[in-house]
Amino acid sequence: METQEFIPAGKSRDTIIETVKLTKTFGDVTAVDEISFALLRGELFGFLGPNGAGKTTTINMLTGLSRPDSGKIRIAGQECTKNPKGIQHLIGIVPDESNLYPELSGFENLCFCASLYGLRKKERRERAAELLEIFGLKKEADRKFGGYSRGMKRKLTIAAGIIHRPQILFLDEPTTGIDVASARQIRQLIADLNRTGTTIFLTTHYIEEAERLCERIAFIVKGRIVRTDSVKNLLQPILGRQVMLVSVSNAESDLIRGLAAAFPSYAFESISPEQIRVESPEPIRLASLVRYIDTRNVVVKEARLYGPSLEDVFVRVTGIEADALKKEAEKKGATV
Ligand SMILES: Nc1ncnc2c1ncn2[C@@H]1O[C@H](COP(=O)(O)OP(=O)(O)OP(=O)(O)O)[C@@H](O)[C@H]1O
């Protein structure tokens, strides 16, 4: 069957989201390019990629906000590529920009969202009060949403997204642009929601966040998924090893061959025209490396030890520096 290849091996086949060759273009830009993946019920799945990678476009197609040009989407067993209405009650959406009303209070906003899902008046009020309590916003219940801090706004937007107890929650960069304490609380809330059975599709710029929260991760770059695997499998090959990323003026193959001959116990890989990845089972002797590279008339600009972390895997798989991702998140006003 066509979908089998992208369902994680060894798991039960209770798949809640499946996409097959999903594609979306805007003029000349292919925002999402034939992506196929599957989420199992109860999973916390991370979609990790830099600015413009296609994360929001993917969420918009999965949630029915935008139509794919081609490909298929199946959610909870329903083919919903062309008819997303049938699954709306099953899903919750937390967009990167809040969609709540600034002139309404937190409580009123939640009651209004609940009414859209057909909850009765008493139930709406009870659910709104319950969520304000869970999200630590009880004291702010009667304040206008427009006056909330960014962190409080994000929390209320998440509360609104789960007002109808959806089976699946789509979170688009939930911790970007907010203060450290709120980001920590939100990560805890996401983990709690997942523990109580909600399937979560999370997009993020933050590698550490994905590593901490997610069971499986897909790396998306320029509209294409370059790798999907469990965090455990992604980290396995480098556990117990030292990894260093050396930025140089020129990482040509001749230099890589020379390094491999001079330091036979290290593994060298050119991951971009100016970056060399060094992996070793023992501590890396940086001074010797720099001396050798200098003899080849190549300038060492920076050397950074990664340890066994998902950052290294990301850099290796995508060729994008982990720092570049962080800088993009910071440009959006984020703090981790
Ligand atoms: N409505 C649109 N019209 C034209 N181009 C678009 C539109 N929406 C997205 N794009 C383009 O599609 C590509 C993917 O954008 P998308 O917003 O999905 O990326 P992203 O990974 O969510 O980025 P970010 O992290 O900045 O939110 C980008 O090149 C973007 O400029």
Automatic annotation (TrEMBL):
Subcellular location: Cell membrane
SUPFAM superfamilies according to UniProt: P-loop containing nucleoside triphosphate hydrolases (SSF52540)
Start and end residues of each ABC transporter domain: 17-247
SMART domains: AAA
Keyword tags: ATP-binding, Cell membrane, Membrane, Nodulation, Nucleotide-binding, Translocase, Transport
One GO location term (cellular component): plasma membrane
InterPro entries: AAA+_ATPase, ABC_transporter-like_ATP-bd, ABC_transporter_ATP-binding, P-loop_NTPase
Gene Ontology MF terms in the entry: ATP binding; ATP hydrolysis activity
UniProt key word Magnesium: no
Protein name from the UniProt record: ABC-2 type transport system ATP-binding protein
Organism: Syntrophus gentianae
Origin organism lineage: Bacteria, Pseudomonadati, Thermodesulfobacteriota, Syntrophia, Syntrophales
